[in-house]
Specification:
This protein is 39% helix and 18% strand. It is built from 12 helices and 9 strands. The strands form 2 sheets. A 7-stranded mixed sheet has the order 4-3-2-5-6-9-7, with helices on both faces. Strands 1-8 form a two-stranded antiparallel ribbon. The longest helix is centred in the last third of the chain and has 13 residues.
C-alpha cells in the first residue's frame, strides 16, 4: 500500500468517511522521501523504542516500525483509528494509543510499553499550533529519552535551533538550549503535504543533554526571567524584566553593571551565561 500516493490516501480516507480538521492542524505527508529520511536520522536499532506524536495516515509510523524495535504512537483523533487499522495492519511492532499527548503520563507510558528498550526516541510530524507546547512538555518532563526528531513550521524550527544571543533567538530558544543540543536536519517544502499548508517546514533534531553545563540553583526563577526578558522584545531587557517580573529597576541596574551588560542591551543579545548570571544575582 503506497501511503504517499494521493489517490490511494483519498480512497482510504473516503472509505472511512474521514475529513481533514483545520482545528487539529492536519496536513498529511505525500512526499515519498521525507519519512524514510526522518526515520533513518534516528539511527535506531533492535534496542530502540520510538514514541510518535500523531500518526496521520501512518506514513511516518510505517517507517519508524521499519527501523525500531517497537513504536508507540499517541494519536488524538479517534476518527483515524479505523484508518490506521487498515494502513498499518502489517506492523507487528506497533501500539497505537488514542490519547492527547499533553494529558498523557509519558513516564508511565515508557515504563509500561517501552520498558524492554534500552534507548527511547521521539519522532513526529507535529501540528504547527501545538509545536512549542509538545516540545517543552517532552523536555521539561525529564523523560528517559535520547533525542527528539520532529518536523515543524520552518520559522518555528529556525527559532528553536537558533543560537542564544542572536536576533532569531526567543525565550523558547533559551529553554531548548538548556535541555538539548539542537540542529536543523533538512527542509520540507509545502507541496509535500495534502492539503498543502501555506508555509514550508523543517525537520530538526534535539539531542538531550546527559550532563547539564549550566549550574542553576532555581530553575523556576531562571525560566521566569527568560520569559520576562523576551516579553517586550522592542524594549531593552532591563525594562522588559523590570516591567513584567516586578524587579526594582535599581536592583536590576546594579546586576547589569556587575555583569558589565549595557543598560540598552536587548533580550536577543544576551547569552546563556548572561541569563544564568542574571538569574543568580537577582
Amino acid at each position: 500500500m503506497n501511503l504517499c500516493d494521493i489517490n490511494t490516501v483519498k480512497r482510504i480516507l473516503s472509505k472511512h468517511g474521514f475529513t481533514f480538521s483545520k482545528a487539529l492542524g492536519q496536513n498529511f505527508l505525500i512526499n515519498p522521501d521525507v519519512c524514510p529520511a526522518m526515520a533513518d536520522s534516528l539511527n535506531a536499532d533492535e534496542n530502540t523504542g520510538v514514541i510518535e506524536v500523531g500518526a496521520g495516515v501512518g506514513v511516518l509510523t510505517k517507517e519508524l516500525c521499519r527501523v525500531a524495535k517497537k513504536v508507540v504512537c499517541i494519536e488524538l483523533d479517534t476518527r483515524l483509528m479505523p484508518v490506521l487499522d487498515e494502513t498499518l495492519a502489517d506492523c507487528d511492532n506497533l501500539e497505537i494509543v488514542n490519547a492527547d499527548v499533553m494529558k498523557t503520563d509519558l513516564h508511565r507510558l515508557i515504563e509500561e510499553r517501552l520498558g524492554d528498550c534500552t534507548s527511547i526516541k521521539v519522532c513526529a510530524n507535529l501540528p504547527y499550533y501545538i509545536t512549542s507546547p509538545v516540545i517543552m512538555t517532552l523536555l521539561e518532563s525529564e523523560l528517559p529519552i535520547d533525542e527528539i526528531v520532529v518536523m515543524v513550521q520552518k520559522e518555528a524550527g529556525e527559532r528553536l535551533c537558533a543560537e542564544v544571543g542572536t536576533r532569531e533567538a526567543g525565550a523558547v530558544t533559551v529553554a531548548v538550549n538548556y535541555y538539548a543540543e539542537s540542529e536543523i536536519l533538512f527542509d520540507v517544502l509545502r507541496d509535500c503535504f495534502m492539503p498543502s499548508p501555506k508555509v514550508d517546514s523543517v525537520v530538526i533534531r534535539l539531542k538531550l543533554r546527559k550532563n547539564q553545563p549550566y549550574e542553576i540553583k532555581n530553575k523556576k526563577k531562571f525560566f521566569s526571567l527568560v520569559k520576562c526578558a523576551f516579553n517586550q522584545r522592542r524594549k531593552t531587557a532591563l525594562n522588559s524584566i523590570s516591567n513584567t517580573m516586578g524587579v526594582p529597576k535599581d536592583k536590576l541596574m546594579s546586576a547589569f553593571e556587575e555583569l558589565r551588560l549595557a543598560p540598552t542591551v536587548r533580550a536577543e543579545q544576551l547569552t546563556m551565561d548572561d541569563f544564568v548570571n542574571l538569574s543568580e544575582l537577582i
